[in-house]
Protein backbone atom coordinates (compact mmCIF):
# COMPACT_ATOMS: atom_id res chain seq x y z
CA UNK A 1 0.00 0.00 0.00
CA UNK A 2 1.20 3.57 -0.70
CA UNK A 3 2.54 5.18 2.46
CA UNK A 4 1.78 8.89 2.50
CA UNK A 5 2.72 9.35 -1.15
CA UNK A 6 0.18 12.14 -1.51
CA UNK A 7 1.73 13.94 1.45
CA UNK A 8 5.36 13.48 0.48
CA UNK A 9 5.16 14.24 -3.22
CA UNK A 10 3.69 17.67 -4.09
CA UNK A 11 3.45 16.73 -7.77
CA UNK A 12 1.38 13.64 -6.98
CA UNK A 13 -0.74 15.59 -4.49
CA UNK A 14 -1.55 18.29 -7.05
CA UNK A 15 -2.26 15.77 -9.81
CA UNK A 16 -4.72 13.80 -7.69
CA UNK A 17 -6.63 16.82 -6.39
CA UNK A 18 -6.77 18.52 -9.80
CA UNK A 19 -8.26 15.32 -11.21
CA UNK A 20 -10.99 15.46 -8.56
CA UNK A 21 -12.14 18.99 -9.44
CA UNK A 22 -15.73 18.97 -10.66
CA UNK A 23 -16.66 21.32 -13.55
CA UNK A 24 -20.16 21.72 -12.14
CA UNK A 25 -18.78 23.12 -8.89
CA UNK A 26 -16.05 25.11 -10.63
CA UNK A 27 -18.71 27.03 -12.56
CA UNK A 28 -19.74 28.60 -9.26
CA UNK A 29 -16.26 30.10 -8.83
CA UNK A 30 -15.24 33.26 -10.67
CA UNK A 31 -11.77 33.78 -12.13
CA UNK A 32 -10.32 35.34 -8.98
CA UNK A 33 -11.76 32.60 -6.75
CA UNK A 34 -10.16 29.95 -8.95
CA UNK A 35 -6.83 31.81 -8.67
CA UNK A 36 -7.13 31.82 -4.87
CA UNK A 37 -7.96 28.11 -4.80
CA UNK A 38 -4.97 27.30 -7.01
CA UNK A 39 -2.63 29.40 -4.88
CA UNK A 40 -3.83 27.78 -1.66
CA UNK A 41 -3.58 24.29 -3.16
CA UNK A 42 0.03 24.93 -4.20
CA UNK A 43 1.01 26.02 -0.69
CA UNK A 44 -0.82 23.07 0.82
CA UNK A 45 0.91 20.61 -1.50
CA UNK A 46 4.40 21.95 -0.81
CA UNK A 47 4.24 23.25 2.77
CA UNK A 48 1.18 21.92 4.61
CA UNK A 49 0.43 18.33 3.58
CA UNK A 50 4.04 17.14 4.01
CA UNK A 51 3.93 18.15 7.69
CA UNK A 52 0.42 16.86 8.46
CA UNK A 53 1.12 13.26 9.47
CA UNK A 54 4.00 14.17 11.78
CA UNK A 55 1.98 16.95 13.42
CA UNK A 56 -0.82 14.48 14.08
CA UNK A 57 1.48 11.74 15.33
CA UNK A 58 3.60 13.99 17.55
CA UNK A 59 0.88 16.47 18.58
CA UNK A 60 3.01 19.31 17.19
CA UNK A 61 1.37 22.70 16.70
CA UNK A 62 1.21 23.50 12.97
CA UNK A 63 3.02 26.82 13.24
CA UNK A 64 5.10 26.42 10.07
CA UNK A 65 2.08 25.36 8.04
CA UNK A 66 0.03 28.40 9.05
CA UNK A 67 2.99 30.71 8.55
CA UNK A 68 3.44 29.39 5.00
CA UNK A 69 -0.14 30.39 4.17
CA UNK A 70 0.24 33.77 5.85
CA UNK A 71 3.55 34.46 4.10
CA UNK A 72 1.86 33.76 0.76
CA UNK A 73 -0.76 36.43 1.53
CA UNK A 74 -3.56 33.88 1.85
CA UNK A 75 -4.58 34.34 5.49
CA UNK A 76 -6.59 37.55 5.22
CA UNK A 77 -8.96 36.73 2.38
CA UNK A 78 -12.14 38.31 3.72
CA UNK A 79 -10.50 41.39 5.23
CA UNK A 80 -10.05 44.73 3.44
CA UNK A 81 -6.69 45.85 2.13
CA UNK A 82 -6.45 48.59 4.78
CA UNK A 83 -6.28 45.78 7.36
CA UNK A 84 -3.69 43.79 5.38
CA UNK A 85 -6.31 41.59 3.76
CA UNK A 86 -7.08 40.92 0.11
CA UNK A 87 -10.81 41.79 0.07
CA UNK A 88 -11.80 38.44 -1.40
CA UNK A 89 -15.20 36.79 -1.29
CA UNK A 90 -16.63 34.33 1.17
CA UNK A 91 -16.68 31.83 -1.69
CA UNK A 92 -12.91 32.25 -2.08
CA UNK A 93 -12.52 31.81 1.67
CA UNK A 94 -14.68 28.65 1.65
CA UNK A 95 -12.63 27.19 -1.20
CA UNK A 96 -9.42 28.03 0.68
CA UNK A 97 -10.52 26.32 3.91
CA UNK A 98 -11.65 23.30 1.88
CA UNK A 99 -8.22 23.04 0.26
CA UNK A 100 -6.34 23.40 3.54
CA UNK A 101 -8.55 20.83 5.29
CA UNK A 102 -7.94 18.36 2.45
CA UNK A 103 -4.22 18.57 3.18
CA UNK A 104 -4.24 19.05 6.96
CA UNK A 105 -7.41 19.59 8.95
CA UNK A 106 -5.49 20.86 11.99
CA UNK A 107 -3.93 23.62 9.89
CA UNK A 108 -7.38 24.56 8.61
CA UNK A 109 -8.56 24.85 12.21
CA UNK A 110 -5.74 27.24 13.12
CA UNK A 111 -6.34 29.15 9.88
CA UNK A 112 -10.05 29.63 10.49
CA UNK A 113 -9.56 30.43 14.19
CA UNK A 114 -7.39 33.39 13.18
CA UNK A 115 -10.32 34.63 11.08
CA UNK A 116 -12.83 33.91 13.84
CA UNK A 117 -10.79 36.05 16.26
CA UNK A 118 -10.25 38.90 13.80
CA UNK A 119 -13.72 39.13 12.30
CA UNK A 120 -15.62 40.28 15.45
CA UNK A 121 -13.01 42.99 15.92
CA UNK A 122 -13.63 44.21 12.38
CA UNK A 123 -17.42 44.27 12.59
CA UNK A 124 -17.84 45.55 16.16
CA UNK A 125 -14.57 47.11 17.31
CA UNK A 126 -13.24 50.60 16.85
CA UNK A 127 -10.99 51.41 13.91
CA UNK A 128 -8.12 51.71 16.36
CA UNK A 129 -8.69 48.15 17.64
CA UNK A 130 -9.03 46.81 14.11
CA UNK A 131 -5.78 48.44 12.99
CA UNK A 132 -3.97 47.27 16.12
CA UNK A 133 -4.94 43.61 16.02
CA UNK A 134 -6.20 42.41 12.63
CA UNK A 135 -3.02 42.95 10.54
CA UNK A 136 -1.00 41.05 13.15
CA UNK A 137 -3.47 38.17 13.13
CA UNK A 138 -3.53 38.07 9.33
CA UNK A 139 0.27 38.10 9.10
CA UNK A 140 0.68 35.37 11.69
CA UNK A 141 2.66 37.67 13.99
CA UNK A 142 0.24 36.68 16.77
CA UNK A 143 -2.31 33.94 17.30
CA UNK A 144 -5.88 34.59 18.26
CA UNK A 145 -8.67 32.76 20.03
CA UNK A 146 -12.42 33.06 20.42
CA UNK A 147 -13.46 32.38 24.01
CA UNK A 148 -17.15 31.50 24.24
CA UNK A 149 -17.60 27.95 25.56
CA UNK A 150 -17.65 27.36 29.32
CA UNK A 151 -17.87 24.19 31.41
CA UNK A 152 -21.64 24.70 31.81
CA UNK A 153 -22.39 26.80 28.74
CA UNK A 154 -21.63 25.80 25.19
CA UNK A 155 -24.22 26.36 22.50
CA UNK A 156 -26.39 28.44 24.86
CA UNK A 157 -24.46 31.72 24.95
CA UNK A 158 -27.15 33.31 27.12
CA UNK A 159 -26.18 31.07 30.06
CA UNK A 160 -22.55 32.20 30.29
CA UNK A 161 -21.29 32.44 33.87
CA UNK A 162 -18.17 34.52 33.22
CA UNK A 163 -18.78 38.00 34.60
CA UNK A 164 -17.57 41.48 33.72
CA UNK A 165 -17.82 44.10 36.46
CA UNK A 166 -17.55 47.76 35.52
CA UNK A 167 -14.78 49.71 37.21
CA UNK A 168 -13.22 53.17 36.93
CA UNK A 169 -10.94 52.21 34.02
CA UNK A 170 -12.97 49.52 32.29
CA UNK A 171 -14.05 46.04 33.36
CA UNK A 172 -12.81 43.24 35.59
CA UNK A 173 -13.39 39.77 34.15
CA UNK A 174 -13.82 36.64 36.25
CA UNK A 175 -14.62 33.16 35.02
CA UNK A 176 -13.45 30.15 33.07
CA UNK A 177 -13.56 29.03 29.45
CA UNK A 178 -12.99 25.58 28.02
CA UNK A 179 -12.34 23.93 24.64
CA UNK A 180 -10.73 27.15 23.38
CA UNK A 181 -8.88 26.56 20.13
CA UNK A 182 -5.33 27.99 20.28
CA UNK A 183 -6.19 29.21 23.77
CA UNK A 184 -2.77 28.25 25.14
CA UNK A 185 -0.96 30.35 22.53
CA UNK A 186 -3.25 33.29 21.83
CA UNK A 187 -2.05 36.84 22.40
CA UNK A 188 -5.40 38.22 21.17
CA UNK A 189 -8.54 36.74 22.70
CA UNK A 190 -12.10 37.76 21.86
CA UNK A 191 -13.93 36.81 25.06
CA UNK A 192 -17.63 36.84 25.91
CA UNK A 193 -18.81 37.53 29.46
CA UNK A 194 -21.95 38.91 31.08
CA UNK A 195 -22.24 42.36 32.59
CA UNK A 196 -25.59 41.33 34.13
CA UNK A 197 -26.57 37.67 34.23
CA UNK A 198 -30.17 38.52 35.14
CA UNK A 199 -30.57 39.94 31.63
CA UNK A 200 -29.70 36.66 29.91
CA UNK A 201 -28.35 37.18 26.43
CA UNK A 202 -28.88 40.94 26.74
CA UNK A 203 -26.13 41.02 29.34
CA UNK A 204 -23.54 39.21 27.22
CA UNK A 205 -20.68 41.48 26.16
CA UNK A 206 -17.70 40.95 23.86
CA UNK A 207 -14.19 42.04 24.88
CA UNK A 208 -10.74 41.98 23.31
CA UNK A 209 -8.22 40.64 25.81
CA UNK A 210 -4.45 40.83 25.90
CA UNK A 211 -3.36 37.22 26.27
CA UNK A 212 -0.12 38.25 27.99
CA UNK A 213 -1.81 39.61 31.13
CA UNK A 214 -0.74 37.82 34.34
CA UNK A 215 -4.37 37.57 35.50
CA UNK A 216 -4.98 35.13 32.65
CA UNK A 217 -4.17 31.53 33.54
CA UNK A 218 -4.02 28.93 30.79
CA UNK A 219 -4.58 25.24 31.30
CA UNK A 220 -2.44 22.61 29.61
CA UNK A 221 -3.58 21.65 26.10
CA UNK A 222 -6.36 19.08 26.21
CA UNK A 223 -5.73 15.59 24.84
CA UNK A 224 -8.16 15.09 21.96
CA UNK A 225 -9.41 12.47 19.51
CA UNK A 226 -8.28 14.45 16.46
CA UNK A 227 -6.94 17.80 15.25
CA UNK A 228 -3.68 16.99 17.06
CA UNK A 229 -1.78 19.75 15.28
CA UNK A 230 -4.10 22.37 16.76
CA UNK A 231 -4.13 23.04 20.49
CA UNK A 232 -7.24 23.36 22.66
CA UNK A 233 -7.07 24.68 26.21
CA UNK A 234 -8.93 26.01 29.23
CA UNK A 235 -8.66 29.69 30.21
CA UNK A 236 -9.19 31.17 33.67
CA UNK A 237 -9.73 34.86 34.44
CA UNK A 238 -9.32 36.29 37.93
CA UNK A 239 -10.09 40.01 37.95
CA UNK A 240 -8.49 40.49 34.56
CA UNK A 241 -8.65 44.21 33.79
CA UNK A 242 -9.95 45.14 30.34
CA UNK A 243 -9.90 48.79 29.18
CA UNK A 244 -13.29 50.28 28.35
CA UNK A 245 -12.22 50.84 24.74
CA UNK A 246 -11.70 47.08 24.33
CA UNK A 247 -15.43 46.39 24.39
CA UNK A 248 -16.70 45.24 20.99
CA UNK A 249 -19.92 47.07 20.28
CA UNK A 250 -21.91 48.16 23.29
CA UNK A 251 -22.07 46.62 26.78
CA UNK A 252 -24.78 43.98 26.52
CA UNK A 253 -24.32 43.80 22.74
CA UNK A 254 -22.30 40.59 22.68
CA UNK A 255 -25.19 38.52 21.37
CA UNK A 256 -25.30 40.65 18.24
CA UNK A 257 -21.54 40.17 17.81
CA UNK A 258 -22.02 36.40 18.06
CA UNK A 259 -24.87 36.39 15.56
CA UNK A 260 -22.93 38.68 13.22
CA UNK A 261 -20.02 36.24 13.24
CA UNK A 262 -21.76 32.87 13.25
CA UNK A 263 -22.38 32.69 9.51
CA UNK A 264 -18.63 33.03 8.86
CA UNK A 265 -17.70 30.41 11.43
CA UNK A 266 -20.23 27.92 10.06
CA UNK A 267 -18.94 28.45 6.53
CA UNK A 268 -15.53 27.54 7.98
CA UNK A 269 -16.76 24.31 9.56
CA UNK A 270 -18.74 23.33 6.47
CA UNK A 271 -15.69 23.87 4.27
CA UNK A 272 -13.65 21.67 6.59
CA UNK A 273 -16.26 18.94 6.19
CA UNK A 274 -15.97 19.06 2.41
CA UNK A 275 -12.16 19.12 2.56
CA UNK A 276 -12.05 16.11 4.87
CA UNK A 277 -14.49 14.21 2.67
CA UNK A 278 -12.27 14.97 -0.34
CA UNK A 279 -9.17 13.86 1.54
CA UNK A 280 -10.73 10.55 2.55
CA UNK A 281 -11.96 9.98 -1.00
CA UNK A 282 -8.62 10.90 -2.62
CA UNK A 283 -6.56 8.74 -0.27
CA UNK A 284 -8.89 5.76 -0.71
CA UNK A 285 -8.97 6.08 -4.49
CA UNK A 286 -5.17 6.34 -4.64
CA UNK A 287 -4.71 3.31 -2.38
CA UNK A 288 -7.22 1.12 -4.22
CA UNK A 289 -5.80 2.12 -7.60
CA UNK A 290 -2.38 1.08 -6.36
CA UNK A 291 -3.82 -2.30 -5.37
CA UNK A 292 -6.13 -2.98 -8.32
CA UNK A 293 -5.03 -0.57 -11.09
CA UNK A 294 -7.88 1.21 -12.85
CA UNK A 295 -10.32 -1.70 -12.57
CA UNK A 296 -11.56 -1.47 -8.99
CA UNK A 297 -13.80 -4.11 -7.44
CA UNK A 298 -17.43 -3.24 -8.06
CA UNK A 299 -18.27 -2.71 -4.40
CA UNK A 300 -15.43 -0.23 -3.95
CA UNK A 301 -16.13 1.50 -7.28
CA UNK A 302 -19.81 1.91 -6.43
CA UNK A 303 -19.06 3.22 -2.93
CA UNK A 304 -16.60 5.77 -4.32
CA UNK A 305 -19.12 6.79 -7.00
CA UNK A 306 -21.62 7.52 -4.25
CA UNK A 307 -19.06 9.57 -2.32
CA UNK A 308 -18.09 11.54 -5.42
CA UNK A 309 -21.71 12.56 -5.94
CA UNK A 310 -22.19 13.51 -2.30
CA UNK A 311 -18.99 15.56 -2.22
CA UNK A 312 -20.13 17.44 -5.33
CA UNK A 313 -23.51 18.11 -3.71
CA UNK A 314 -21.77 19.36 -0.58
CA UNK A 315 -19.55 21.70 -2.56
CA UNK A 316 -22.56 23.14 -4.38
CA UNK A 317 -24.31 23.76 -1.06
CA UNK A 318 -21.21 25.33 0.51
CA UNK A 319 -20.49 27.64 -2.42
CA UNK A 320 -24.17 28.51 -2.83
CA UNK A 321 -24.62 29.70 0.75
CA UNK A 322 -21.27 31.54 0.68
CA UNK A 323 -22.38 33.30 -2.51
CA UNK A 324 -25.61 34.37 -0.84
CA UNK A 325 -23.54 35.97 1.90
CA UNK A 326 -21.36 37.70 -0.70
CA UNK A 327 -24.41 39.07 -2.50
CA UNK A 328 -25.40 40.92 0.64
CA UNK A 329 -28.87 39.48 0.89
CA UNK A 330 -30.39 38.08 4.02
CA UNK A 331 -29.40 34.44 4.43
CA UNK A 332 -31.95 32.43 6.38
CA UNK A 333 -30.53 30.87 9.52
CA UNK A 334 -31.95 27.53 8.42
CA UNK A 335 -29.95 27.67 5.18
CA UNK A 336 -26.75 28.19 7.15
CA UNK A 337 -27.73 25.33 9.46
CA UNK A 338 -28.43 22.99 6.53
CA UNK A 339 -25.01 23.84 5.12
CA UNK A 340 -23.10 23.36 8.38
CA UNK A 341 -24.89 20.16 9.38
CA UNK A 342 -24.86 18.54 5.94
CA UNK A 343 -21.25 19.33 5.07
CA UNK A 344 -19.75 18.34 8.42
CA UNK A 345 -21.85 15.15 8.54
CA UNK A 346 -20.51 14.42 5.06
CA UNK A 347 -16.92 14.68 6.28
CA UNK A 348 -17.63 12.10 8.98
CA UNK A 349 -19.63 9.83 6.66
CA UNK A 350 -17.05 9.93 3.87
CA UNK A 351 -14.18 9.05 6.20
CA UNK A 352 -16.14 6.23 7.79
CA UNK A 353 -17.19 4.84 4.39
CA UNK A 354 -13.63 5.12 3.09
CA UNK A 355 -12.37 3.08 6.03
CA UNK A 356 -15.03 0.45 5.36
CA UNK A 357 -14.09 0.17 1.68
CA UNK A 358 -10.39 -0.14 2.52
CA UNK A 359 -11.04 -3.00 4.91
CA UNK A 360 -8.01 -3.81 7.08
CA UNK A 361 -5.98 -1.09 5.36
CA UNK A 362 -8.38 1.62 6.50
CA UNK A 363 -6.99 1.57 10.01
CA UNK A 364 -3.40 2.20 8.91
CA UNK A 365 -2.07 5.58 10.01
CA UNK A 366 0.17 5.73 6.94
CA UNK A 367 -2.83 6.03 4.64
CA UNK A 368 -4.25 8.94 6.64
CA UNK A 369 -7.91 7.93 6.28
CA UNK A 370 -8.28 7.15 9.97
CA UNK A 371 -6.90 10.65 10.65
CA UNK A 372 -9.68 12.08 8.46
CA UNK A 373 -12.23 10.21 10.59
CA UNK A 374 -10.78 11.49 13.86
CA UNK A 375 -10.47 15.04 12.59
CA UNK A 376 -13.98 15.06 11.11
CA UNK A 377 -15.73 14.27 14.39
CA UNK A 378 -15.15 17.62 16.06
CA UNK A 379 -16.49 19.55 13.04
CA UNK A 380 -19.91 18.14 13.93
CA UNK A 381 -19.58 19.60 17.42
CA UNK A 382 -18.07 23.08 17.27
CA UNK A 383 -19.57 26.23 15.73
CA UNK A 384 -22.97 25.01 16.88
CA UNK A 385 -23.42 21.26 17.33
CA UNK A 386 -25.23 19.45 14.55
CA UNK A 387 -28.00 18.65 17.01
CA UNK A 388 -28.51 22.40 17.44
CA UNK A 389 -28.45 22.81 13.65
CA UNK A 390 -31.17 20.16 13.28
CA UNK A 391 -33.23 21.92 15.93
CA UNK A 392 -32.97 25.22 14.02
CA UNK A 393 -33.87 23.51 10.75
CA UNK A 394 -36.87 21.81 12.38
CA UNK A 395 -38.11 25.11 13.81
CA UNK A 396 -37.85 26.73 10.40
CA UNK A 397 -39.77 23.85 8.83
CA UNK A 398 -42.48 24.20 11.46
CA UNK A 399 -42.78 27.93 10.73
CA UNK A 400 -43.14 27.20 7.04
CA UNK A 401 -45.92 24.65 7.62
CA UNK A 402 -47.92 27.20 9.59
CA UNK A 403 -48.17 29.25 6.40
CA UNK A 404 -49.87 26.44 4.47
Molecular structure report:
The chain is an alpha+beta fold. It has three domains: 5-139, Acyl-CoA dehydrogenase/oxidase, N-terminal domain (Butyryl-Coa Dehydrogenase, subunit A, domain 1); 144-253, Butyryl-CoA Dehydrogenase, subunit A, domain 2 (Beta Barrel); 255-402, Butyryl-CoA Dehydrogenase, subunit A, domain 3. Helices cover 55% and strands 13% of the residues. It contains 13 helices and eight strands. The protein has helices at residues 5-8, 10-19, 23-26, 31-58, 63-71, 90-103, 105-124, 127-139, 254-292, 298-326, 333-358, 369-379, 386-402; strands at 144-147, 163-167, 170-181, 188-194, 204-210, 216-218, 232-243, 247-248. The strands form two sheets. It has a four-stranded mixed sheet, with helices on one face. A four-stranded antiparallel sheet has the order 2-3-7-6, covered by helices on one side. A hairpin with a 2-residue loop joins strand 2 and strand 3. The mean pLDDT is 95.
